[in-house]
Design goal:
Elements (H helix, E strand, L loop, with lengths): L19 E6 L6 H4 L3 H13 L4 E6 L10 H4 L25 E5 L10 H7 L4 E7 L1 H14 L3 E10 L3 H14 L2 E3 L1 H9 L2
Parallel strand pairs: 1-2, 1-4, 2-3, 4-5, 5-6
Length: about 200
């Protein structure tokens, strides 16, 4: 696995392509400085999933107005991703297709107020593969919420990124300890080739 994250694993498993979904979290222009280095891994993961007809959902974090920021405005000194700005758009380098679902959100969680849980349950989805940015905020929050809602979680170590290595590693440790199976492009490719 990328960067030897295997040492944190407490258990191993491969996603089931028949019941999995890929969540690509907040790969937007606003986060380009941390997102660009993982674009190859994100696009590889997208291609691996698409080849097995695993649904792909992109989340897009944005605010319609300062009144919908919850605590984020206070926490981030009102440096928010505002809808309608170039920063709010998904990065054009993503291997995205026009029929991929885009889920709008205005907090760290991909579940809060988005209808994601209902969407997944209606389609018989039981597993989520988490990729994107930021590892320790939106990716981790979405992974934890998926877990407590009864979804099996797979967390990518090479297709997630954040502002500091220490924060990334801390999340990977937390995910492996209590919430998610760790995966990377190599493991997904190997696991999917067995199906």
């Amino acid at each position: 696995m990328a960067d030897s994250y295997e040492k944190f694993e407490t258990r191993k498993r491969n996603p089931d392509p028949k019941t999995a979904v890929l969540l690509v979290i907040d790969m937007q222009n606003y986060f380009a400085s941390m997102a660009k280095p993982i674009l190859p891994a994100i696009n590889t993961t997208i291609d691996l999933c698409r080849n097995l007809s695993i649904p792909i959902i992109f989340t897009r974090h944005n605010h319609k107005s300062p009144s919908d920021d919850g605590m984020l405005g206070e926490w981030w000194n009102n440096d928010l991703v505002m809808d309608g700005t170039p920063e709010a758009e998904l990065m054009p380098e993503l291997n995205r297709k026009s029929d991929d679902k885009i889920l709008e959100k205005n907090t760290y969680s991909g579940f809060r107020g988005t209808g994601l849980e209902e969407y997944l349950v209606e389609r018989g989805i039981k597993e989520v593969i988490i990729t994107g940015v930021m590892t320790n905020l939106c990716c981790e929050t979405t992974a934890r919420e998926a877990y407590v809602r009864g979804f099996r979680v797979f967390f990518s170590t090479d297709a997630t990124a954040t502002s500091a290595r220490e924060l990334h590693v801390a999340t990977i440790k937390n995910m492996a300890y209590g919430f998610a199976y760790l995966v990377d492009c190599k493991r997904l490719n190997e696991g999917f080739s067995k199906n």
